[in-house]
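User: quick one, sequence for these tokens?
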């Protein structure tokens, strides 16, 4: 029996916002909205030097008698012990590095985020040009 990848990975710090705080801020205005970062873990690249640790075998057409093909993940995988911490760090670092190039709401999103979900509220829904059409 081999060794599990998760047994060798460090969990890293818990960078997720406090869920109670996120939920309280979620209902400060009249209209509550929710969005998510699509495939969040797949948005963050694994460094080249670490990609061999994420190798997996694939048997074409499910034929277990044939020679398997070897692949390497280039992005973080769902279910890895380290993925939530790494991806939340990447999100925060990106907002810190580039947030000033966008509207002030970009920096605020960090406090509205819980893992890959964004929970926020607005005072009213307008047809054009509001935060709903820009973010969702």
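Assistant:
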């Amino acid at each position: 029996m081999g060794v599990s990848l998760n047994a060798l990975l460090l969990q890293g710090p818990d960078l997720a916002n406090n869920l109670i705080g996120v939920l309280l801020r979620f209902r400060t205005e009249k209209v509550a909205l929710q969005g998510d970062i699509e495939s969040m873990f797949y948005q963050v690249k694994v460094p080249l030097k670490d990609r061999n640790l994420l190798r997996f075998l694939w048997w074409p057409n499910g034929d277990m008698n044939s020679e398997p093909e070897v692949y390497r993940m280039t992005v973080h995988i769902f279910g890895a012990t380290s993925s939530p911490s790494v991806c939340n760090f990447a999100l925060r670092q990106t907002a810190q590095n580039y947030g000033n190039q966008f509207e002030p709401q970009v920096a605020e999103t960090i406090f509205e985020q819980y893992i890959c979900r964004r929970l926020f509220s607005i005072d009213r829904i307008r047809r054009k040009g509001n935060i709903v059409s820009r973010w969702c």
